Amino acid sequence: FGAFGDITATLLPNWKVNADVGSNIITAITQMQGLWMDCTWYSTGMFSCTLKYSVLSLPVYIQAARTTMVLSCILSAFGICITTVGMKCTKLGGDTDSKSHASFAGGICFILAGIFGLVPTSWYTREIISNFLDQTIPESSKHEPGGAVYTGFISAGFLLIAGVIFCTSCFKKQQGAWIYPPQQHHFPSTEQERNAGYNLKDYV
């Protein structure tokens, strides 16, 4: 869920939605701005989008959001592949120690993906709120956080929870191995004494 939501939030165009403030009557119902395109939904039902081709002309927080969200998607995909190897229900990965190490590595990937997904959404939300509270910006240019921002927050939470679960499960496996060492078969002392008695009797 975290990886799917992360990819969805990266591609959605509604990171920023025009705020319904003031008494201005405009033709468009909704104006949305995303990381890769800006879209407008008109009252006639038409929907038009414009791609953001120039990277250098974008604000710094949008450039950072693009980079970190793409890294988050890549890390979450790596995390899924690695943790699949580390699961007990799969036949990949070899012995228990190898699976434990793979589970830990996948958990680290999920945690990093969650952090990379949480930073841009927080920064983007901060910029939206600061612009909304700025009195010098006209009301027609003010925006509110869109659905993609909330999707990014929820996905980052899922990824962080998944990473913690996989990392702690790895530690539990290792701790169980230390507490319960493999049993070694020894002959009982009584049996050894009995065998020793037989040997002495034979010599007598």
TrEMBL record:
It comes from the Eukaryota. GO terms for cellular component: bicellular tight junction; plasma membrane. GO terms for molecular function: structural molecule activity. Its main location: other. Keywords: Cell junction, Cell membrane, Membrane, Tight junction, Transmembrane, Transmembrane helix. Pfam families: PMP22_Claudin (PF00822). It is found in: Cell junction, Tight junction; Cell membrane. It is a multi-pass membrane protein. The chain crosses the membrane at residues 68-90, 102-124, 148-171. Belongs to the claudin family. Claudins function as major constituents of the tight junction complexes that regulate the permeability of epithelia. This is Claudin. It comes from Syrrhaptes paradoxus (Pallas's sandgrouse). The gene is Cldn20.
